[in-house]
Write a structure and sequence with these properties.
Layout: H1 6-12, E1 19-21, H2 25-37, E2 47-48, E3 59-60, H3 66-69, H4 76-87, E4 93-96, H5 100-113, E5 117-120, H6 131-134, H7 138-150, E6 157-160, H8 170-183, E7 186-189, H9 206-217, H10 221-240, E8 243-244, E9 247-248, H11 250-299, H12 325-345
Helix pairs in contact: 2-5, 8-9, 9-10, 11-12
Organism: Camellia lanceoleosa
Protein name: UDP-glycosyltransferase 92A1
């Protein structure tokens, strides 16, 4: 996403250009709107809407990551981000690691704001144990977690994570830790380096968190409904990337459309280059024939009516005023053609 400027470079060479976003469309839509407009700097309220994103829910200023709270219009980071998103307008399309069924609002935002093709091709996951993103200990950590999970009963482990772009405040983190300890449930808590950096909009009590955990983990009707919805989303994700005989999911179709668009442009560029090359070969042949005629005249040492005599080459080429215009242009281009002859033969 940070290399939107490369679209202009790609198009200079007639190449297809697409941007891949590793995240979803809704969050990136909010990110895009915030950087382009800095709306929270222009209102007195603590809550504000996203400009250009009418379907997006209003956000509270305390929910903003720190880099937005300290951003100033015109500073280096703000200018870089705004230029980056403006460069997206030059791209042939954008791919998102999401699916149309659950991220339609975010997809529509970019279709309207950027005006290019948008392909939701998710879910795309990093390889398990990828050292490129998680470090050298990633594979060992994965096996340790899997071994621990296999030792626990089915549906007995609570997974807690907040992603890489947000985190609870320090006080919220303490309350969450107290709740996990008090609930008596098995859990895996993924903690990033950003813990304590971003702030939420309100404080919480660990007793309230324990109640929510009990609700989700118990066999109550509401808790089971929440689990069922999560399973429905999982099934939607699996169906979206499914590409079996007789069935093609939405993400599989989107990937197919992306590849078709990329290959179509590449084919058109190759075809245009081939036509231009063939035209060049024809002009080159005609120019060679004209050069031969000029050299023949030069070998005869003819005098032109305005008194210029030439022995060889193209000195005094203006003597051809009596020739047809297209013949004159062919001779004048002959010098360049001769210089490119070796390259053209390749």
């Amino acid at each position: 996403m940070f290399f939107g400027w490369s679209a202009k470079v790609a198009h200079e060479f007639g190449a297809f250009h697409a941007i891949f976003n590793a995240g979803g469309g809704y969050g990136m839509a909010a990110f895009h709107s915030l950087w382009l407009h800095l709306p929270y700097k222009k209102v007195n309220s603590q809550e504000f809407p996203f400009p250009g994103f009418r379907q997006g829910d209003p956000v509270h200023t305390k929910q903003l990551p720190e880099h937005f709270q300290v951003a100033v219009a015109g500073d280096s980071w703000c200018s870089f981000s705004q230029d980056m998103f403006r460069d997206w307008l030059e791209s042939d399309g954008i791919l998102f690691n999401t699916m149309e069924e659950i991220d339609h609002v975010g997809m529509e935002y970019f279709r309207q704001q950027i005006g290019c093709s948008v392909w939701p091709v998710g879910p795309i996951l990093s390889s398990l144990g990828s050292k490129a993103r998680a470090g050298d200990d990633a594979e060992a950590t994965m096996h340790l977690c899997m071994k621990w999970l296999d030792s626990k009963p089915a549906n007995s482990v609570l997974y807690v994570a907040f992603g890489s772009q947000s985190a609870p405040s320090p006080s919220q983190t303490i309350q969450l830790a107290m709740a996990l300890e008090a609930c008596g449930k098995n859990f895996i808590w993924v903690m990033g380096l950003c813990v304590g950096v971003a702030s939420g909009s309100r404080e919480v009590n660990h007793k309230d968190i324990v109640k929510k955990i009990d609700l989700v983990m118990s066999g109550s009707t509401k808790g089971q409904d929440m689990k069922n919805k999560a399973c429905e989303v999982m099934e939607m994700l699996n169906n979206a990337k499914n590409d079996e005989k007789g069935f093609k999911g939405s993400s599989a179709k989107a990937m197919e459309d992306f590849l078709y668009a990329a290959l179509s442009k590449s084919y058109n560029v190759v075809t245009q280059n081939r036509i231009a090359y063939e035209n060049f070969r024809i002009i080159k042949t005609q120019a060679k024939q004209t050069i031969a005629g000029v050299n023949y005249l030069a070998s005869k040492k003819w005098e032109v009516n305005f008194g210029v005599e030439f022995q060889s080459g193209f000195a005094g080429m203006d003597f051809m005023e009596g020739l047809e215009v297209n013949q004159v242009e062919l001779v004048r281009s002959a010098v360049a053609v001769e210089g490119l002859e070796q390259e053209a033969d390749r």
